[in-house]
Amino acid sequence: MFSSPLNNQEGRIFMREVAVIGVGQSVFGKFPGRTAASLGGEAVAAALKDCGMHPKDIQVAYAARAYDANCTAQAVLKEVGVTAFEMINVENACAGGATAFRGVWKEIACGRYDIGIAIGVESMTTSPIAGKLIPPEKDDLDGYLGMTMPAMFGMVARRQMEEYGATAEDFALVSVKNHHHGCLNPQAQYRKEFTVEEILQSRMISEPITLLMCCPNTDGAAAAILCSMEVARKYTTQPIKVIGSALLTGDYKYLQKDICASPVGVKAAQMAYEMAGCAPKDIDLVEMHDAFANEEILRYEDLALCAPGEGLDLLRSGATAIGGRIPVNPSGGLLALGHPLSASGVRTVCEVVLHLRGQAGARQTPNAKVGLAQMLGGLVTGLEHGVTAGIHILAR
Length: 396
Description:
Blueprint: E1 18-25, H1 36-51, E2 60-64, H2 72-77, E3 86-90, H3 96-109, E4 115-123, H4 141-144, H5 149-164, H6 168-182, H7 196-201, E5 204-206, E6 209-210, E7 219-228, H8 229-235, E8 240-249, H9 263-276, E9 285-287, H10 293-302, H11 311-316, H12 333-337, H13 341-357, E10 370-377, E11 388-395
Parallel strand pairs: 2-3, 2-4, 9-10
Antiparallel strand pairs: 1-7, 1-8, 4-7, 5-6, 8-11, 10-11
């Protein structure tokens, strides 16, 4: 069950190749009659079935949950009859799931274990903040002065309009695109087409951000099974390799020169590309954090999918839609699936895996070879917004 880290004569750790062999998620939606454990159990059972693995073959688990959390991994895994091994629970705001995935990747890459599972789960409708804005921490001065997520992205949107010539119609176009993608995803919370006009005419939340430019709070879970490449070949002829992984915390806010830029997101992307040995031009699809429609445009630039200042042109060209040069959020993203905070960072990885296998159905990216899953999370007074960035690059 337990392997010693692999060292060379200089004491450096060799990183083994790691593959994802099983993915699963629950349907996303509002399920006040279900527990987080039952949602997580559904996702884990789906991931186990996906690769034909017996639950007791898992050696280590990392689970992420932000609200009402208590021994999440233990509560979820007992649902599938798994107990009595190392289980680690993490919280990292919206990047919690990405953190759990990276934790399992590290355990296997350094040789401590051969098989592990990453779980992200959230039950927003039964949490203490059900039906409310995410409240600020007691010492979060910015939050108590009104710097909520909608307020922040409203200000960012105004800056995008002033500095780059963005329009409210551009932001609506992101939502139109992602809701169209969501119609092709049977696990999305909202499978409904919207027009630009319908999105613009929905209730104003934080000018110019309207209701249909915001992701909904949601219940859901996702799970991914990782293992060493040697073990992977015993289960599948189509292992999906994790070729890049980065998790990074942001710097002080006063060092952030532009609220439209994410220094932590840019740096994390550079780290992931360097580890993967690939460039942005090699990426075939992206799943990313689109909590607000205007945010997606910014992340194109963070990930170097286009040059700085050219995110609007990339969107308007149709390149980020299904069938375009670099589909972004073909799942429907947070805007259509909803955002069960800690689940999203695992769910984005699951979506990329399906495309690399050619199993994404009507939303499939043709001949996808390399995909990127990105997640940002957190607001902390004094630190740049989007405190944590997690990025994983996968390849077939």
